[in-house]
Specification:
It is an enzyme of class 1 (oxidoreductase). This protein is of the alpha/beta class and 248 residues long. It is 31% helix and 26% strand.
């Protein structure tokens, strides 16, 4: 049995993770901690993998603490910058047998859309990303959209493509944010959960990739897959992206 502790257990995502772990035949819930609880309770003696689903302002400190305590970590909290990732990697160099996994998105549909976007990127002159979420989400753009834009930009650069064409001179912010030259537009609307569209365009044609997660239960198969992978010693150091576990 894989012993799993959940950090952020009372949150919107954390509560689903707790239930998913309880329902998994090969897992058992070790600890369910939330804001104000002492993370020092989580140790290798009681936990094989800790799942961290909190808020961006707390995630880095939580992960660094868990690494220091000798526990492998699966992270679903978004808002990771290059600097934060570097801090995690640096902490893991002192713990070479440990691993941390961070997923911009745990939904299989979103991971595949991101993968397909990387394949399509070199074949289209234009590319933009639209992400749509509920208004309670605290970060914008989403970590998934940032990851998608970065992947598109990297694929375009590898193919020797130039900048995405855009003659706009004054947009009052309507052109959205820009990540590595790719525009991202964030929608926050009551009734939505988690959705992303990747738009590609050439003269006379368009390709649209869309992934929709209508309920948080859609993320649980990906979370459990990550827990199973991180319970062993195959994935040491820092791993980012569920595509690493899907044999794509």
């Amino acid at each position: 049995m894989i012993r799993v502790s959940v950090v952020g257990a009372h949150g919107r995502m954390g509560s689903h993770v707790v239930q998913a772990v309880k329902n998994a035949p090969d897992m058992e819930l070790a600890l369910a901690l939330d804001a104000g609880d002492d993370l020092a309770q989580i140790t290798p003696e009681n936990t094989d993998v800790a799942v961290e689903f909190t808020v961006p302002s707390a995630a880095l400190d939580n992960v660094l603490a868990l690494v220091k305590q000798g526990v492998n970590v699966v992270v679903g909290t978004t808002g990771w910058t290059e600097d934060k990732l570097n801090q995690v990697s640096a902490a893991l160099t002192e713990r070479p047998a440990q691993g941390v996994f961070i997923a911009p998105n745990f939904a299989i549909s979103a991971v595949l859309a991101d993968y397909f976007a990387k394949i399509a990127a070199p074949y289209f002159e234009s590319a933009e990303v639209v992400e749509l979420h509920h208004p309670d989400k605290v970060d914008a753009p989403s970590g998934t959209a940032i990851h998608t834009a970065q992947a598109i930009a990297a694929a375009r650069e590898a193919a020797g493509m130039g900048l995405v064409p855009d003659a706009t001179q004054s947009d009052n912010g309507s052109r959205g944010g820009v990540v590595d030259g790719i525009h991202i537009h964030a929608v926050r609307l009551r009734g939505l959960n988690a959705h992303e569209e990747v738009l590609f365009g050439n003269a006379g044609e368009q390709l649209v990739l869309r992934a929709d997660s209508f309920d948080r239960s859609s993320f649980m198969p990906g979370v459990l897959l990550a827990v199973r992978k991180m319970a062993g010693d195959t994935y040491q150091g820092l791993t980012v992206g569920l595509d690493n576990f899907l044999d794509l």
